[in-house]
């Protein structure tokens, strides 16, 4: 699945192991600035890159002008993604020139899916770029940077995903500290589905799953470092098929059951899933595991059988409805999310009406929606009957109004409930803390800062446009207790 496009963010990962920390303090520290675009997998990869660089004496900075190394971790999902990277590189060129005036050097790297797709073209069009590195090669960063320091331009975009995962495993052997209460953990990469609108199979390669042992080891380290909630990541995460020690192959449901046994890991999530890969074991995990949060991002993209076929989604709308019924039977309070593309080639008014009908029938808690845009190299880009922009815009507005109404209704239905909230960080206003509800909504409340990292019972008292507002329930301790009901009615607090 396309990982959901999110706002661009600058990442200053705090994950530096004690061993790494000593290395940094004991040497001439250099600064790395990472700007992360796109999905959670890129956020995770940015953390991994800074982990790999820490023993080399690099520490993260959020000030590009202060950086000896700038890395753009790019995303290819958005329209004109490559052009946006080139214009950002134009801005970086000025920063690099300014640093040079003060006798300071700056290396510039481009990572992520645009790096994978564009390769050498990047250094040709943007000579300030020293290093182009694809998502499967981040473990090689120290060696690649050493080549750059020797005056070479380096392009490394080989698909050697097993080596990357082996490296991540080695990393998991080291202790970690200062993890935020909620963190990502990649369990699977790549995709074999070849939806006709999507570049992922070309930029991230075939599906590969990490071994059960590697994932459990990393999750245990994260829990020991204070992580309370782990979101398992994969381009097609529910296609996970990792090998266990005894040689058996585990699906995602079985993996989640194993991770649910780890002490201190109180919340589990996963994203992003394909409807074809929601098997019974995974669905029943939503019924059986209290730590598996009642939220599921399950993109369908279209409600028209004709368009689903043309997108190569490999399921029909009726199969999707039946799947939703089974999921809701297992987990009645689940919040469903999705992705929708409007204006795929040959989408008629009737096809669009079928999508709107599907949305009305499913009732989503939230969803992401986009106008179709042609991605070079994908079959959709050359299909006949491309839909005019004005038609796409009108359909998108109509669809988003419907989704927005459903989201408001879902959020409003939480008013007066008491739920467990993982308190994650300080809010904008003094005394305010922001946490996350079981259904992935941000919850704002007044609470002491030292409660960050704990799970508290919170009454939802107000509903905002994007957040819920809550109040701590007095006298309730940290609800790490997995036996605690995850949703109760007001007045029913134990
Ligand atoms: S090809 Fe389809 S299933 Fe695979 S990542 Fe892209 S949208 Fe998801």
TrEMBL record:
Chain ranges of the MTTase N-terminal domain: 30-150
Segments forming domain TRAM: 412-474
Cofactor binding: number and manner: Binds 2 [4Fe-4S] clusters. One cluster is coordinated with 3 cysteines and an exchangeable S-adenosyl-L-methionine.
Keyword tRNA processing: yes
Compositional bias of kind Polar residues: 10-24
UniProt region (Disordered), positions on chain: 1-24
Subcellular location(s) per record: Cytoplasm
Every Radical SAM core domain range: 177-409
Cofactor needs: [4Fe-4S] cluster
Residues where [4Fe-4S] cluster 2 binds: 191, 195, 198
Enzyme Commission numbers on file: 2.8.4.3
Keyword annotations from UniProtKB, A to Z: 4Fe-4S, Cytoplasm, Iron, Iron-sulfur, Metal-binding, S-adenosyl-L-methionine, Transferase, tRNA processing
GO CC annotation, single: cytosol
Residues annotated to bind [4Fe-4S] cluster 1: 39, 75, 113
A GO MF term: tRNA-2-methylthio-N(6)-dimethylallyladenosine(37) synthase activity
Primary localization class, coarse: cytoplasm
Catalytic reactions on record: 2-thio-N(6)-dimethylallyladenosine(37) in tRNA + S-adenosyl-L-methionine = 2-methylsulfanyl-N(6)-dimethylallyladenosine(37) in tRNA + S-adenosyl-L-homocysteine + H(+); N(6)-dimethylallyladenosine(37) in tRNA + (sulfur carrier)-SH + AH2 + S-adenosyl-L-methionine = 2-thio-N(6)-dimethylallyladenosine(37) in tRNA + (sulfur carrier)-H + 5'-deoxyadenosine + L-methionine + A + H(+); N(6)-dimethylallyladenosine(37) in tRNA + (sulfur carrier)-SH + AH2 + 2 S-adenosyl-L-methionine = 2-methylsulfanyl-N(6)-dimethylallyladenosine(37) in tRNA + (sulfur carrier)-H + 5'-deoxyadenosine + L-methionine + A + S-adenosyl-L-homocysteine + 2 H(+)
Subunit structure: Monomer.
Family the entry assigns: Belongs to the methylthiotransferase family. MiaB subfamily.
Function noted in UniProt: Catalyzes the methylthiolation of N6-(dimethylallyl)adenosine (i(6)A), leading to the formation of 2-methylthio-N6-(dimethylallyl)adenosine (ms(2)i(6)A) at position 37 in tRNAs that read codons beginning with uridine.
PANTHER family assigned: CDK5 REGULATORY SUBUNIT-ASSOCIATED PROTEIN 1, MITOCHONDRIAL TRNA METHYLTHIOTRANSFERASE CDK5RAP1
Protein name: tRNA-2-methylthio-N(6)-dimethylallyladenosine synthase
Species the sequence originates in: Roseibium album
């Amino acid at each position: 699945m396309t990982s959901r496009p999110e706002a661009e963010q600058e990442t200053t990962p705090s994950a530096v192991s004690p061993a790494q920390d000593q290395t940094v303090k004991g040497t001439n520290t250099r600064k790395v600035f990472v700007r992360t675009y796109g999905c959670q997998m890129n956020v995770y990869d940015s953390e991994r890159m800074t982990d790999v660089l820490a023993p080399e004496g690099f520490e993260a900075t959020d000030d590009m002008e202060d950086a000896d190394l700038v890395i753009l971790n790019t995303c290819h999902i958005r329209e004109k993604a490559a052009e946006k990277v080139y214009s950002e590189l134009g801005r970086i060129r000025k920063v690099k020139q300014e640093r040079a005036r003060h006798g300071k050097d700056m290396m510039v790297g481009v990572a992520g899916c645009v790096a994978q797709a564009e390769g050498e073209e990047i250094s040709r069009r943007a000579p300030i770029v020293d290093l182009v590195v694809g998502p499967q090669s981040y473990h090689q960063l120290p060696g690649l940077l050493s080549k750059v320091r020797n005056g070479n331009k380096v392009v490394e975009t080989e698909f050697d995903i097993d080596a990357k995962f082996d490296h991540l495993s080695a990393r998991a052997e080291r202790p970690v500290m200062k993890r935020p209460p909620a963190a990502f953990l990649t369990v699977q990469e790549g995709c074999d589905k070849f939806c006709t609108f999507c570049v992922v199979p070309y930029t991230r390669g075939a599906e590969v799953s990490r071994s059960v042992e590697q994932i459990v080891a990393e999750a245990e380290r994260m829990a020991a470092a204070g992580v309370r909630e782990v979101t398992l990541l994969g381009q097609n995460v529910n296609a996970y098929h990792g090998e266990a020690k005894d040689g058996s192959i585990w699906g995602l449901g079985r993996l989640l059951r194993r991770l649910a046994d780890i002490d201190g890991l109180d919340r589990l999530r996963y994203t992003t899933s394909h409807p074809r890969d929601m098997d019974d074991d995974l669905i029943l995990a939503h019924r059986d595991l209290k730590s598996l949060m009642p939220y599921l991002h399950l993109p369908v993209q279209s409600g028209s059988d004709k368009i689903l076929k043309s997108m190569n989604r490999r399921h029909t709308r009726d199969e999707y409805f039946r799947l939703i019924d089974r999921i809701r039977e297992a987990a009645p309070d689940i919040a469903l999310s999705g992705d929708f593309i409007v204006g795929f080639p040959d989408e008629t008014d009737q096809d669009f009406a079928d999508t709107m009908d599907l949305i009305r029938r499913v009732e989503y808690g939230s969803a992401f929606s986009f106008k179709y845009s042609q991605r070079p190299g994908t079959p959709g880009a050359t299909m006949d009957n491309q839909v005019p922009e004005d038609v796409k815009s009108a359909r998108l507005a109509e669809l988003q109004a419907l989704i927005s109404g459903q989201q408001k209704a879902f959020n409003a239905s939480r008013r007066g409930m008491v739920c467990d909230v993982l308190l994650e960080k300080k809010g904008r206003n003094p005394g305010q803390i922001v946490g996350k509800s079981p259904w992935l909504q941000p919850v704002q409340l007044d609470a002491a800062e030292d409660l960050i990292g704990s799970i508290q019972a919170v009454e939802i008292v107000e509903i905002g446009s994007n957040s819920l507002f809550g109040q701590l329930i007095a006298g309730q301790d940290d609800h790490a207790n997995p036996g605690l009901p995850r949703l109760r009615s007001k007045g029913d607090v134990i």
